[in-house]
Amino acid sequence: MTTRTDTQEATMPESTLASLAAHRLVPVVVIDDASSADALGGALAAGGLPVAEVTFRTAAAPEAIRRLADRGDILVGAGTVLTPGQVDAAVDAGATYVVSPGTSRAVVERAAERGVLALPGAITATEIQAALELGVTTVKFFPAGTSGGPKAIAGLSAAFVDVSFVPTGGVSLDNLGDYLALPSVAAVGGSWMVPRAAVAAGEVEHLTTLISQASARAAELRP
């Protein structure tokens, strides 16, 4: 097992966030069978978007994260992380960031203890202030599509000028530009380029095409 130094633990969340922001897109994937991660990893790499948020919605998540992390070329994190125990399971499997639908002090603090980036969910001013009190300055805006979308983020950004957002939920290739045009959006999460059925079926060619299209569109929108 690799032992992290204090310096590595201090800089790892910052470097992870910088990497996510550089890619601009975070594929959010549900994996039912951990063996599907092998084909997924190949498609992500071939499609030019070596990033994945594997949600803890299935029992296969920890092993899927491990398989992707073991490749060494995928920036892999865990999504739908609700408890400190899931933080531990994700980090032990190789996740370098954890994403939650809401803001949980216990989850954020455990992620800090493990030296990984936490992206808690926050869609209201009160929730953003709660995240700030925990030392978090980048939050997941979820579900974005039903919570006001880009206009809501723009409004919140006027009050919280030092906060960055990762909108997820209801984002597609069609409205991607509306989100990435906002200076306060660090990256955008979405599942359209990694549909659950295609991942389960190991449709590498189809996944690679979808991922390539998403990556190319994000590159076009880069300021």
Write a structural description:
The protein is of the alpha/beta class. The chain is built from 10 helices and 8 strands. The chain has a 4-stranded parallel sheet with strand order 3-2-1-8. The chain has a two-stranded parallel sheet with strand order 4-5. Helix 5 links the parallel strand 4 and strand 5. The longest helix is centred in the first third of the chain and has 18 residues. The chain starts with 5 loop residues before the first helix and ends with a helix.
Q: What is the total tally of β strands?
A: 8
Main sheet characteristics: 4 strands, parallel
| SSE ordering | HEHEHEHEHEHEHEHEHH
Can you count the helices? 10
Strand order across the biggest sheet? Answer: 3-2-1-8
Residue-averaged pLDDT, rounded?
A: 94
Helix content: 40-55%
Q: N- to C-terminal separation?
A: 40 Å
DSSP strand content: 5-15%
Catalytic activity: 2-dehydro-3-deoxy-6-phospho-D-gluconate = D-glyceraldehyde 3-phosphate + pyruvate
EC number: 4.1.2.14
Keywords: Carbohydrate metabolism, Lyase, Schiff base
Subunit structure: Homotrimer.
Secondary-structure map:
Layout: H1 6-23, E1 25-29, H2 36-46, E2 51-55, H3 61-71, E3 75-79, H4 84-93, E4 97-99, H5 105-114, E5 117-119, H6 125-133, E6 138-141, H7 149-159, E7 164-167, H8 176-180, E8 188-190, H9 196-201, H10 204-220
Parallel strand pairs: 1-2, 1-8, 2-3, 4-5, 6-7
InterPro entries: Aldlse_KDPG_KHG, Aldolase_TIM, KDPG/KHG_AS_1, KDPG/KHG_AS_2
Subunit structure: Homotrimer.
Protein name: 2-dehydro-3-deoxy-phosphogluconate aldolase
